[in-house]
Design brief:
The chain is an alpha/beta fold. It has 10 helices and 10 strands.
Length: about 300
C-alpha cells in the first residue's frame, strides 16, 4: 500500500479550517458538571436507657449520647478533639438553656455540655448557663461562642418551641416576635450576630411535647419518652427534623393528620425568607444512631 505524503497544500487546507472549527466549538454551550448539593448534617441519637424514670434522664447515658452525636457530626472520633473543632480554649462560652417549669433542658444535658467545654480547655469562669437572664449575664455579654440547647415542645404562638425560638430571650420584648405565628424569629439570629457565634444546636427530644391547647399549655399526657437528642450546627435543620417527628407522633396519637392550631411556619421561613439554615428535608443529611424502636422518621 502506497504511503500518502502530507504536503504543504494539505497543511494550508487544515490551517484554514481550524479557526472555523474552533469558533463553532466555542459557540456550543457544554453544560458544566453540576456541583453536589451541600446538605446540612443532622444527627439524631436515641438510647432506650436515656431515662431513669418519667422525665428523669440518666446523666451517664446522656453524656454518652451527646459524645457520640458530636463526634459523628464533626467527623472526629476523639471526643475532646471533636469539641475543639467547635470551641477554642480562649473562648467565652454561653450555654443557652431553657428553664420551662414542666419541661426544661435538664441539668443532665447542661452538665454534659459544660463538661466537654471544660475538656476543650475553656476556663470554668468563662462558661455561663442561662435562659431568661442572658441579656444581663456578663458571660453572655462577652461570649465569643454559644451552645444552644432546649427541649422540643409544641407552642401556642410559634407552633413549636425549639432551637430557633430559644434565642427569643436575647431581645427585650419577646412579644414583638409573636405576630404571624412568630414568622420572623430568624431575624433575631441575624440582627444580633448569633448565627456565627452559635457553634452547636441541641434539640432535646428526651420527653418532647406533641400537643398544646393554649398559652403555656402543658399536660403529661401530651409528652412521650422518645429518649433522643438532635444535634446540628444548623438550627433550622435541627428544628425541621424535630418538627417532622412531632408531626408523626401527632398522627400516631390522634389516628390521623391533625394540624397544629398554630403552624410552625417560622422554620420554613427561616430558610426561604431569612437564609438562616435549611428546612427542606431534601437538603438535610440525617444520620440516625442508636435505638430505632418508635423512631418516627
Amino acid at each position: 500500500m502506497k504511503k500518502k505524503t502530507f504536503t504543504r497544500r494539505d497543511f494550508l487546507k487544515v490551517a484554514a479550517v481550524t479557526p472555523v472549527m474552533g469558533a463553532v466549538a466555542g459557540s456550543l454551550k457544554i453544560p458544566a458538571a453540576e456541583k453536589p448539593l451541600q446538605k446540612s448534617k443532622v444527627v439524631l441519637i436515641r438510647d432506650e436507657n436515656a431515662l431513669l424514670s418519667f422525665k428523669k434522664p440518666d446523666a451517664e447515658v446522656v453524656q454518652r449520647m451527646l459524645d457520640e452525636a458530636v463526634t459523628t457530626l464533626v467527623g472526629e472520633k476523639d471526643v475532646t478533639k471533636a469539641w475543639k473543632t467547635l470551641i477554642s480554649p480562649d473562648d467565652v462560652v454561653g450555654i443557652k438553656t431553657n428553664i420551662m417549669r414542666y419541661l426544661p433542658t435538664t441539668p443532665e444535658v447542661e452538665n454534659a455540655i459544660k463538661k466537654r467545654i471544660l475538656d476543650a480547655g475553656v476556663a470554668e469562669n468563662n462558661i455561663g448557663i442561662d435562659d431568661r437572664g442572658v441579656r444581663n449575664n456578663p458571660i453572655f455579654k462577652k461570649a465569643t461562642a454559644l451552645i444552644n440547647a432546649r427541649p422540643a415542645r409544641t407552642h401556642h404562638w410559634s407552633g413549636i418551641g425549639s432551637c430557633i425560638k430559644n434565642y427569643i430571650m436575647f431581645v427585650p420584648k419577646a412579644f414583638e416576635y409573636h405576630g404571624d405565628s412568630c414568622a420572623d424569629l430568624a431575624t433575631i439570629w441575624k440582627d444580633l450576630n448569633l448565627k456565627d457565634k452559635t457553634k452547636l444546636n441541641i434539640l432535646v427530644m428526651l420527653n418532647p411535647q406533641f400537643h398544646t391547647v393554649g398559652p403555656h399549655s402543658y399536660a403529661d399526657k401530651y409528652i412521650w419518652e422518645y429518649k433522643g437528642l438532635i444535634v446540628s450546627k444548623d438550627p433550622v435543620a435541627a428544628d425541621s427534623t424535630g418538627l417532622r417527628i412531632i408531626e408523626a407522633k401527632r398522627k400516631e396519637y390522634f389516628g390521623e393528620d391533625v394540624p397544629m392550631k398554630t403552624p410552625a411556619k417560622h422554620i420554613r421561613l427561616a430558610e426561604t425568607r431569612h437564609g438562616l439554615g435549611v428546612a427542606d428535608p431534601a437538603k438535610i443529611e440525617l444520620i440516625k444512631l442508636g435505638w430505632e424502636d418508635g423512631i418516627l422518621i
